[in-house]
Amino acid sequence: MISDAKESLPQTVAASGSTVSEAAAGAILTIDLGAIRENYRRLKARLAGVRCAGVLKADGYGLGAAQVASALIKEGCDIFFVALLGEGIALRRALGAGPDIFVLNGLPPGSESEAVAAGLHPVVNSAAQLKAWHESARAAGRKLPAAIQVDSGMSRLGMPPAEVEALTKDAFDGVDIRLVMSHLACADEPANPANEAQRLAFERLRGMLPKAPASLANSSGIFLGSSYHYDLARPGAALYGINPTPGETNPMLPVVRLQAKVAQTRSVEEGAGIGYGHTYRARGPLRLATISLGYADGWHRRAASAAWFEGVRLPFVGRVSMDSIILDISALPAGRLGEGNLVELIGPSQTVDDAAGHAGTIGYEILTSLGARFHRRYVGA
Ligand SMILES: *Cc1c(COP(=O)(O)O)cnc(C)c1O
């Protein structure tokens, strides 16, 4: 696959996204690009020769699309997926011409010329989008690349079967079909019969389209076996250390570490009301630490109920505030934890998936919620 991006686009990769110094920040997010590369290699090994893209939507699942892409490029990855056109334009600016960048959600009507100018490939999800891209190709006076997505049973994005069946041959005039793809709804449940039903529907639908490389598997789809691999896999979550095989040992390396700084410590007497609404009252004398991280940083009010320091669990007490959380540090020796020390929210003691479990959500939501106020440290580049 060769990109037709404009040669004039800058060749540089955006520098670290961090705008706040480590000393000034309330919390530090460490992203291990070496672990992302190792995770890519582990997925490649499973794919045995099948190509492997990188999914970078939502700014690389919150970790920095440009930085993640640069790391994956070093592993030979040259196909990326984003969700929105704006994400694609930003990524093209960061990476320059070269890698193929597909826009999963398709192009909003009227935005086609922006995609052409940035050398981005739409994932065409409807007959109307196909017609618009066909007309863009006529206006451009050349063939334009695209992926065609069919709905094999998730009912979210992609051409419904009836639309695929109704397509005429000339509908594809001017369109260089780089990929025929679909997406699995239940890939993280290997025993779910919906997986095989979707695979068979995908087989039938792609048989009605012009011959092109095929793609079905996301992270968990890679672990469903080689019949789901086709010509290209599209992992996101697994690259970022989220377990693609829930319920089994995580085959991926952890990528993210989140540490928050202690802003203040104090001792309180029995009966002290703690935090907004006094939802917690001290049942005896307590030592407390307030950390500089709160729901404005994406740590939801309902999210994980403890931080960790040197392997010791420090439970949250009272409500999560916008910019702070109060911890019960009575389990540590007095004076052990003080202003400026770091406690761990995500790391060896509490994985992304653990934090998600405590919050009643999935690791994807934890990562993509991580806020803009952290000092971001990229290691292992
Ligand atoms: C998000 C997404 C992926 C990646 O899924 P993961 O579960 O994160 O691996 C792949 N394909 C499509 C169409 C997606 O929307």
Description of the structure:
- The chain has 11 helices and 19 strands.
- A hairpin with a 2-residue loop joins strand 15 and strand 16 (312-315).
- It is 26% helix and 22% strand.
- It has helices at 33-47, 57-61, 65-73, 85-95, 112-118, 127-140, 161-166, 194-207, 219-222, 352-359, 363-369; strands at 27-32, 51-52, 54-55, 79-82, 100-103, 121-124, 144-149, 175-181, 214-215, 232-233, 256-268, 273-274, 280-281, 286-291, 306-309, 312-315, 325-328, 342-346, 375-379.
- It is α/β, with parallel strands linked by helices and 381 residues long.
- The protein folds into 2 domains: 33-240, TIM Barrel, CATH 3.20.20.10; 256-350, Lyase, Ornithine Decarboxylase, Chain A, domain 1, CATH 2.40.37.
- The strands form 5 sheets. It has a 7-stranded parallel β-sheet with strand order 3-4-5-6-7-8-9. Strands 1, 11, 14, 17, 18 and 19 form a 6-stranded mixed β-sheet that branches. It has a two-stranded parallel ribbon with strand order 2-10.
- The model is unreliable at 1-16 (pLDDT under 50).
- It is elongated and about 80 Å long.
- Residues 55, 57, 104, 183, 218-219, 234-238 line the site of pyridoxal-5'-phosphate (PLP).
